Amino acid sequence: MIQITAKLASKLKSCNSVCVLTGAGISAESGVPTFRGPEGLWSKFKPEELANVQAFLANPALVWEWYRYRKTLLKNVSPNPAHIALVKMEKHFKDFTLVTQNVDNLHARAGSHKVLCLHGNIDKNYCMTCAKDFNDANLAQTTVPKCDCGGLVRPGVVWFGESLPTQTFEEAESAARRSQLFLCIGTSAVVYPAASLPLIAKECGSYVVEINPEVTELSAIADESIFEKAGVALPQLVDIIPKN
Q1: How far apart are CA 136 and CA 208, in angstroms?
Q2: Four-residue CA torsion sign, 113, 115, 120, 121
Q3: How far is it, in rounded angstroms, from Cα 179 to Cα 173?
Q4: Strand 133-135's sheet: what is its strand order?
């Protein structure tokens, strides 16, 4: 059992506005390899060869081969208790926003409705020329899929050197500013601009709680840290929330 402070329990019982930021750690509990650490995907592939526009244009077949591997891998994993707990949490607060740095779509698959995907969604794809959207089902099954207009179709994720989708980040920033409770879950809090969200929330008076098995750069400024896996901690926090 985790230790839940009286202050956090009070926030869970009384606040109206909650913003949550999730990172790779919450997906790792489902068996999704992370991009960092010795067992991560980055230890098997060089990111500069795969995850930027220049690399894609130079060798789209190689990039698509890797993304098809990732898409297949993700079809074989399922949401974990942390994802399910956030679905339950969403139902209890009038203003609840879930912001994720993950592209795996596990939050939506678990049943969360208000999800802001800062780095895109690996289940989506789009044409680089005309911006037409393609899901995996209607994507041409060729080595390098192309749009009817002749443009290259690419995965709908944010690559190195690209900006986050402006409207999505603005919505996330607004949710952080108005939040009374901000939960930062399973993220190292070093990748900006996403890492600025808990700082913005704290500056605006939100109670910032970090949930992570290890100390991060956020630990020093968070109002409190719960050093535990999300799948263990979040269900216990949900149990604190009054049932409607």
Answers
A1: 37
A2: negative
A3: 10
A4: 133-135, 120-127, 153-157
Active site residues: 119
Which phi and psi (to 5°) does residue 123 adopt?
Answer: -80, -10
Confidence band of 37 (pLDDT split at 50, 70, 90): very low
Query: Which structural domain range is residue 88 located in?
Result: 1-32+79-119+164-244
CA dist., res. 164 & res. 162, Å (int): 7
Task: Classify residue 174: in a domain, yes or no.
Answer: yes
Q: Identify the CATH number of the domain in which residue 1 sits.
A: 3.40.50.1220
What's the pLDDT tens digit per position in 101-154?
999 999 999 999 999 999 999 999 999 999 999 988 777 777 899 999 999 999
Question: Residue 15 half-sphere exposure, CB side, CA atoms within 13 Å?
Answer: 24
- Domain-embedded: residue 49: no
Beta strand segments in the chain, E: 17-22, 95-100, 115-117, 120-127, 133-135, 153-157, 181-185, 207-211, 224-226
Contacts (Cβ under 8 Å, ≥6 apart) of 203: none
**Euclidean distance between the first and the last CA atom of the chain, given in angstroms as a whole number:** 24
When pLDDT is cut at 50, 70 and 90, the band that residue 35 belongs to is low
Is residue 109 domain-resident? Answer: yes
Single-letter code of the amino acid located at 52: N
- What is the tally of helices (H) and strands (E) in the chain? 10, 9
**In the predicted model, what is the mean pLDDT of residues 92-101?**
96
For residue 114, being part of any structural domain is answered with yes
Q: How many CB atoms are closer than 10 A to CB 137?
A: 6
Spatial CB neighbours of 40, under 8 Å, sequence gap ≥ 6:
33, 34
